[in-house]
Design a protein that fits this description.
The chain is an alpha/beta fold. Among the domains are: about 1-115 and about 285-405, Isopropylmalate Dehydrogenase (3-Layer(aba) Sandwich); about 140-180, no CATH class. Helix content is about 45%, strand content about 20%. It has 14 helices and 18 strands. It has helices at about 15-30, 45-50, 55-65, 80-85, 95-105, 185-200, 220-240, 250-255, 270-285, 310-320, 330-345, 350-365, 370-375, 390-405, and strands at about 5, 10-15, 35, 40-45, 70, 105-110, 130, 140-145, 150-155, 165-170, 175-180, 205-210, 245-250, 265-270, 290-295, 300-305, 370, 385. The strands form five sheets. It has a ten-stranded mixed beta sheet, with helices on both faces. The chain has a two-stranded parallel sheet with strand order 1-3. The protein is globular, with a radius of gyration of 23 Å. The termini are close together. Bound molecules: NADP nicotinamide-adenine-dinucleotide phosphate and magnesium ion (MG). Magnesium ion (MG) binds near residues 274 and 278.
Length: about 400
């Protein structure tokens, strides 16, 4: 069989621990036998980031800007323990944060649905995609403990040194707490653009929820920017495709989500997205069944799994034990990346390969061949049995070969 040619190089970003082990298996058994592709390879394992003073991370981001589409393995975000474990020069920042900042992008997550793992919410028939604004608000706050009675004020002084406003937050009668948060029009506009781009790409409706009845200026600005972006750049396209943009209060959005059948993008402010993405993840079954894509408003894409490096499984692997880690989200990161590459290159055979790869992976789970995490959430059936990662990937490979013949 002739290999399928991928026209433009794909940016491949390798990572750490158990996901690095699975990454190689997926590549060797599911991709390289069938695809003739050029890979712009960046090794972001922690050791390499340390050796290059993290320059490799920036280079990987630049490569995505150059080629347009990348796929990333999970990477360790170092903390104090990791600094010791890997004898690092310093506590390097999160590679995902660095790449996101470089591409000015928004992260979208979507569950992988299979027939034999029903979501906890019965009405959900199609995936609910979630987009989290990952800049500002309480994640970049200034907060103080107020020790005693006194006045807390909010002021703004412009670049020329002129105070433009000043207001009382609270006249404290005793101890308490205060917090200052912010956002920028530029970041909210990028977020809105990425959300409309993603929803239109996926052909799904877009919902956005905020609390502009209470926060008339702050959340009001989010609502206004989304509405302006919609009217200016998307209303005609959305209508022509039968898609809706729907703004509602965040609490109403939550209530409606629980009764919806899915098939939509839920755009969330930073905190809402942090909380709600964990709720969706667990309601759909397993962390290993959540995909993630970074979409930049400038038209760059980076695909990955939502989960981390599965550290605990890796330590077992190092001891020579076999693990039953689930490679589904990694496989879907590759299929998502290949599909997007094929769409941009106008190579339908690459898109078709991506579809078949996903079909093979879905068929594997639906035939009852399951990794440990899925055994706990699958609908009970006599055919279900737990396999190690190698066996799972071998089964996907077998099914893929059949689909490609
Ligand atoms: P994690 O790697 O997502 O794993 C948490 C737990 O979820 C695992 O211990 C495992 O549960 C289960 N799990 C996750 N993925 C699985 C899979 N593919 N198959 C089977 N089970 C899976 O999160 P973590 O342990 O908190 O973080 C580990 C490292 O990953 C950290 O260094 C963190 O910085 C990094 N991280 C990276 C990214 C990224 O690059 N995108 C994202 C998050 C975290 P059981 O142990 O119960 O089996
Ligand atoms: Mg969270």
């Amino acid at each position: 069989m002739d290999k399928i040619k991928v026209k433009t190089p794909i940016v491949e970003i390798d990572g750490d621990e158990m996901t690095r082990i699975m990454w190689k298996m997926v590549k060797d058994q599911l991709l390289l036998p069938y695809l003739d592709m050029e890979l712009a390879y960046y090794d972001l394992q922690l050791k390499k980031r340390d050796e290059t003073d993290d320059k490799i991370t920036l280079e990987a981001a630049e490569a995505i800007k150059k080629y347009g589409v990348g796929v990333k393995c999970a990477t360790i975000t170092p903390n104090k323990e990791r600094v010791k474990e890997y004898k690092l020069k310093k506590e390097w920042s999160s590679p995902n944060g660095t790449i996101r900042a470089a591409l000015d992008g928004t992260v979208f997550r979507a569950p992988i649905l299979v027939k034999n793992i029903p979501p906890s919410v019965r009405s959900w028939k199609k995936p609910i995609h979630i987009g989290r604004h990952a800049y500002g608000d309480v994640y970049k706050n200034l907060e103080f403990r107020v020790p005693e009675a006194g006045k807390a004020e909010l002021t703004f002084t412009n670049a020329a040194g002129k105070e433009l406003f000043r207001g009382t937050i609270q006249d404290f009668k005793g101890p308490g707490v205060i917090q200052g948060i912010h956002n920028t029009d530029k970041s909210i506009e990028s977020f809105a653009k990425s959300c409309f781009t993603y929803a239109y790409d996926q052909k799904i409706h877009l919902w956005f929820g905020a609390k502009d009845t209470i926060s008339k200026t702050y959340d009001g600005e989010f609502r206004k920017i989304f509405e302006d972006e919609y009217q200016k750049n998307w209303a005609a396209k959305f209508k022509a495709t039968g898609l809706d943009y729907f703004f509602t209060l965040i609490d109403d959005a939550v209530a409606r989500i629980m009764k919806s059948e899915g098939g939509l993008l839920w755009a969330c402010k930073n905190y809402d997205g942090d909380v709600m993405s964990d709720m969706l993840g667990s309601a759909y079954g397993s962390l290993a069944m959540m995909t993630s894509v970074l979409v930049s408003p400038h038209g760059f894409y980076e695909f990955e799994a939502s989960h981390g490096t599965v550290q605990k499984h890796y330590y077992k692997y190092l001891k020579g034990e076999k693990t039953s880690s689930n490679p589904m989200a990694l496989i879907f990161a590759w299929s998502g990346c290949l599909r997007k590459r094929g769409e941009l290159d106008k190579t339908p055979e690459v898109v078709e390969f991506a579809n078949k790869l996903e079909a093979a992976a879905l068929q594997t789970v639906e035939s009852g061949v399951l990794t440990g995490d899925l055994m706990q959430v699958v609908t009970p059936d006599a055919k279900n049995h737990k396999v190690y990662t190698e066996e799972f990937i071998a089964e996907v490979a077998k099914k893929l070969k059949k689909l490609l013949q």
